[in-house]
Design goal:
36% helix; 25 helices; Helix Hairpins; magnesium; 691 residues; globular; alpha+beta; binds 2-(butylsulfanyl)adenosine; 27 strands; single chain; OB fold (Dihydrolipoamide Acetyltransferase, E2P); seven-stranded antiparallel β-sheet
């Protein structure tokens, strides 16, 4: 009997939706809008409601989540799911390659002097899953379990849109078990945690735990709401009349053609040098990847050689996991100190038993604020999980409750500033307590001085943390103006300060009198006024006097200055003490003005008008610079752009005209691509600037 037109339409919708799922979840390149996609699914649901007898297992309606289970069934794997041996340093990799090479040479499968060819790919930090397809149709999904037996999570697996319910392409095997990792992208993890927090539910510690918690849900509707992903890296049982490929890399491509996402970063390389090269390349961009990885996996590429090498106990001889230094480690929380910042913010800092994490030894980690400590239920004496990823400052993620001693002490916030004993306050809507001592507080004076001397402010070389502390402690510097009253003799009298270094400091201080207005404004440490805002204020007002006298409206006319920043600026200049210091600084020779092109007035000039040599190609355009440039530093390139009349901001939005991406550009480049913002490389930028 011929299919009715309606039934044909349904079949076509299945195909169409499958293709969109693939484009969206596997290729990360959607071809229709979410709304259009939803309307296709709605159409399917409507037809199926009329004709439930037509519903096929591959229908998108079958991803919606089934009735909650009471427990997962145990399933014995058709082919055991083994594990990988680990390597931690170059020596381990050399040894791995030597063992495999020796073995293959002994079997005359590798010639003397010949290097083994490997596939190198990411080691995903998620959960291993086995997906069983019979005649191309997904029939079961199981967790790894103990490697021999796992749990049947089919209902949950079906809700993951990057897992095809039906394989696509040619030569579909009779039986194919696809193995890979279920994980959560970092962006989805942060969104999930924000939502959890709003609901007052404990956040997940990391994307891996979030993925595990989401997959091991008895209610598959919960899994569905969690946006999990699947990346394929291998296979289990395979019954096929044709050989799918001769190599690991060829098999991965087959899996991709069947409809799976595979490691976006992978390479076929030769010998140890090739492996280590790949490792280093990925290590450098680890933080910018959309998901967590915990290392690189190397596999001998030729399947025949894999077979010849075989397995030893429960791991293959043909593969190795080259682990990165762990980004998360456990250690003892010995105490909680309170640090006073430049603006008086009191930050609880964990005092930790030293622990090697993310490649360095960590002894302190931020705990953010008292609410965070309470929410995470962190107590002194706990064993805690510490995370340090990339250049991000280390933080305490969570306590390990199983290891909590009976005498673990809950944290109590101090009643007064631990440094100056002034009262502390916590403004409504703010998470932090602040010392009210202002510049009476020694800690705030020290931090303000460190900030003022920093590179992007007055750039006083040699004035670091230790010296700032000494100068404040000896009461030689009570305000920024005092810095310019120091003498070589008084500085030389300080501990560990010889006449030479004292003179160097004096020279650096003298040099700072030539500071640019933007850096000077930044140096003042006005709350909410960062580098970019300082620069905008400098170009807009042209002098400190003009800035100090600006009305709230005038301030808010500057781009990116909202009510909070405007108020903070006015508050700063209303303070008598600050006026006094600025006055004294001017008398001491620090009164920078914005350098304008001759003939351009200093009042209310917009960025474009104040450009020193405007260039029509970039005039008034907004740029974001990211990644490492080779001809210039990013600051230099930004300065060139500004001189040509462009605006340079730090985050990518729809208003951004161009993103200039250097080497190892990460999230900003991705964001630009998402938003369809034009991306330039350095040469294109040079061309645009006519250089
Ligand atoms: S291959 C015979 N490739 O690492 C073992 N495993 O200890 C086959 N993993 O639990 C594993 N990324 O889930 C392989 N690209 C990758 C992987 C990977 C992550 C996990 C896997 C397993 C563990 C191995």
């Amino acid at each position: 009997m011929a299919m009715s037109e309606l039934q044909q339409e349904l079949e076509q919708l299945y195909q169409e939706i499958m293709a969109h799922d693939y484009a969206y979840h596997v290729k990360d390149a959607p071809t229709i809008s979410d709304a259009q996609y939803d309307s296709l699914v709605q159409r399917v649901l409507a037809i199926e409601a009329e004709h439930p007898e037509w519903i096929k297992p591959e229908s998108p309606s079958q991803r919606v989540g089934a009735a909650p289970l009471t427990m997962f069934e145990t399933v014995t794997h058709a082919v055991p799911m083994l594990s990988l041996n680990n390597g931690f340093n170059d020596g381990d990799i050399v040894a791995f390659n030597r063992r495999a090479s020796d073995r293959l040479r002994a079997q005359h499968l590798l010639m003397a002097g010949e290097e083994i060819e490997y596939l190198a790919e990411l080691k995903f930090d998620g959960l291993a899953i086995n997906l069983r397809y019979e005649k191309g149709r997904l029939i079961q999904g199981t967790t790894r379990g103990d490697g021999m037996q796992g749990e049947d999570v089919t209902e949950n697996i079906r809700t993951i849109r990057s897992i095809p319910l039906m394989l696509t392409g040619d030569e579909i095997p009779e039986v194919l078990e696809v193995r890979g990792e279920v994980l959560m992208h970092k962006a989805d993890f942060h969104k999930l945690n924000e939502a959890q927090e709003k609901l007052g539910i404990k956040p997940f510690v990391n994307p891996r735990n979030a993925a595990a918690g989401s997959l091991r849900q008895l209610d598959s509707k919960v899994t569905r709401s969690r946006h999990l992903r699947f990346y394929a890296y291998g296979w289990g049982q395979l019954e096929s009349t044709v050989a799918l490929a001769q190599t690991q890399s060829g098999m991965l491509e087959r899996l991709r053609d069947f409809g799976f996402a595979i490691s976006p970063e992978r390479a076929v390389v030769k010998g140890v040098a090739g492996l280590l090269d790949f490792y280093q390349g990925i290590e450098a961009k680890r933080a910018a990847l959309p998901f967590d990885i915990d290392g690189i996996v190397y596999k001998v590429n030729r399947l025949a050689l894999q077979e010849a090498l075989g397995f030893v106990s429960r791991a293959p001889r043909f593969a190795l996991a080259h682990k990165f230094p762990a980004e998360e480690m456990q250690t003892l929380l010995e105490g909680i100190d309170i640090q006073v910042g430049r603006t008086g913010a009191l930050t609880p800092v964990a005092r930790l038993k030293p622990v090697f994490v993310g490649g360095v030894t960590v002894t302190n980690a931020t705990l953010h604020n008292e609410d965070e400590i309470r929410r995470k239920d962190i107590r002194i004496g706990d064993t805690v999980i510490v995370r340090r990823a990339g250049d991000v400052i280390p933080e305490v993620l969570a306590p390990v409750l199983d290891l909590r001693p009976e005498d673990a002490q809950p944290f109590t916030m101090v009643q007064a500033c631990p440094v100056c004993h002034s009262s502390i306050e916590r403004l409504p809507g703010e998470a932090v307590w602040r010392c009210t001592g202002g510049l009476f507080c020694r800690a705030q004076r020290v931090q303000s001085l460190i900030h003022a001397a920093s590179r992007k402010a007055l750039d006083i070389e040699g004035l670091g943390d230790k010296l700032a502390e000494l100068l404040v402690e000896k009461e030689m510097v009570k305000s920024l103006a005092d810095l310019y009253r120091l003498t070589a003799a008084s500085v030389a009298s300080l501990e560990r300060m010889g006449p030479k270094s004292a003179q160097n400091l004096m020279d650096a201080i003298e040099k700072s009198k030539g500071v640019k207005l933007a850096n000077f404004i930044y140096a003042l440490g006005i709350r909410h006024v960062g580098e970019t805002t300082a620069r905008d204020l400098a170009t807009h007002f042209g002098s400190i006097t003009a800035l100090a006298q600006a009305s709230r409206e005038e301030l808010q006319a500057v781009e990116d200055v909202g009510p909070a920043i405007a108020e903070s600026i006015q508050h700063f200049f209303a303070e008598e003490h600050n006026q006094q210091v600025i006055h004294e600084l001017a008398e001491l020779g620090l009164n920078p003005v914005y350098e304008l092109r001759s003939g351009v007035a200093a009042t209310g000039t917009a960025d474009a008008a104040s450009a020193s040599s405007p260039n029509q190609a970039v005039l008034g355009k907004t740029f974001v610079l990211t990644g490492a440039l080779s001809h210039w530093t990013r600051d230099e390139a930004a300065e060139l752009l500004r001189q040509a009349g462009a605006k340079v901001t730090s985050s990518v939005s729809k208003k951004t005209d161009y993103v200039v991406a250097g080497a190892d550009a990460g999230s900003k480049l991705r964001r630009a691509e998402e938003l369809g913002v034009t991306v330039l490389d350095e040469d294109a930028l040079k061309a645009l600037l006519g250089l």
